[in-house]
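Entry 14. Two folds queued back to back today. First construct below, sequence then structure tokens.
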Amino acid sequence: MNIANQLTMLRIFLVPIFMYFALLNSDKGFLYAGIIFIIASITDFLDGYLARKYNMVTNFGKLMDPLADKILVLAAMLVFLEMNKIASWMVLIVITRELGISIIRAIAASSGKVIAASYYGKLKTVSQLIGITMILFNIPFGFYVFYISIFLTAYSGFDYIRLNMEVLKG
């Protein structure tokens, strides 16, 4: 369990703490939830950076890092959904995209092919993290950033399918 994998596990550990504070539905709760979300988001970038820089890439990290990202983002979206801050179709787009990409990656892995994250996939993640953070801190145009992230989520999903049609034809 290297430092990169420990940071990934820390991100997962922070999710229920984030949710607890966010669901207090108070200014102080959102402040603490926002701080925890920022810390968790930083671990996302830091674990990948450390793993690549110090050659600490592991199969555990390849599996758990994207899972931790999905858990964090979906937890925030579920909190917002429960508070009627976002619509259920937004959550459905994200879940559908993430499940679809995971299935494509699993099919590719079964034939020895690794599908790396795309530019649009990375942009999607960054926009989700920024939009969620802005909403937590009640920054007025945070919802616009979040809507852009939903568009990027759908677009990156279609892009993955387009770029990996040979995997699906298998």
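Second construct, same run, same settings:
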Amino acid sequence: MKCRYACGTKEHRIARRSFLGTVAAAGTGIAVGGLGVFTRPAAAAQLAAGQKRIVVFNMHGGLSQLESWDPKPKTDTGGPFRAIPTSVPGLHISELLPKTAQQMHHLTVARGVDTSEDDHGKGAYLMMTGRRQTPGVDYPQIGAVAAKTLAPEDSPLPGHIVITPGGGGGRGGDAAYLGPRYASLALGNGNPPPNLDRPGSVTDIAEAGRHNFRRSVNDRFLSRRRTALTDAYTHSYEQALRLMAQKDAFDVTKEPAADVDRYGKHDFGRHCLLARRLLEKGVTFVQVSHANYDTHNENFDFHLEQVGEFDGPFATFVADLASRGMLDSTLIVVLSEFGRTPNINLYYGRDHWSRAWSVVMGGGKIPRGSVYGATNANGTEVTDGKVDHGMLFHTYLQAVGVESTGTFDIDGREMPIADPAAKPIEGLVA
């Protein structure tokens, strides 16, 4: 199916077919030295001791709440799809999510989200940072905050990983003042980072000699000009060495064939299975991207296909975390930059809508099988339990045991972990 995106912004020029893998991923390389800027993931041995983790499913473009978590059938805005019962009595979601419906006893829907920001870039920023963009200052995204607050120092694996469709690689610019050690490592199309294998021509003796020489030169330099930047540079090499020894963590082909079949052999299924594998290996934060929901045209045909693709792998992921005893220590979030308009336009599409939409959470301290907030009969406004991005950001952190009202010490300056003008959502952190 071809979908034309009327808003034409750069955030949404990723075609669906490239996501599904018919366009080859144009991977960009990561220098081995650059891998080490990702730090503090949980060691596998510590998972049993209650190491907390977060996984975000980012529905890029603006998932329609009316075709997912807050259907309004038989209304002037509801569209053609039915609402179906779930594993939670009285809770109904769109019929496009039949498998997820059977896992809703593990999840909670926040139906009263109002962020009042209909721009893709600004909406994505506020949902990932919990704050509005401000000239002259940048804020770290949730993955960077999780890596800094939750992950221990000594793991070989990155603490902040983003699994993206299409090409991609390298570190992101999403850690702001927390520094490059907490920035994301992008896995383009779920592929492992490149350059994890040592060239065959380099012997063990030569490799050891190279690193001994590097360490001696670094120590000499650091004794005279030590800064946060030089520490990050030095650390990057050491973590890169440890990461090379853990390269199998990124290899989803190591998973049993039965699991591959359950998740599905398309890209999104593979990405969800990889996310589970990374969490089990000790990664603190994983983001899985599913795109592109910017349905100004043909909204219903597109959601029929796209949400249908999301449903099975996501439901399998939730069920797996529950059956493996990981839900208490792992927060699941399904978000987007905004929702879609209740009004259906002349192209059978829905436009940008941030005044009444939904976010789904589960695991950690989030109550199971509940609904928070409500919208009116045709979904045009929030009638109960209104929340915004700042409140959600606090809630994510509190759900995994982070005191979100605390501060970071950044070169002697206290920086609030989350927006001090906001607070966690009462009733959503058990």
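Quick look at the second one. The longest strand covers residues 53-60. The longest helix spans residues 299-323.
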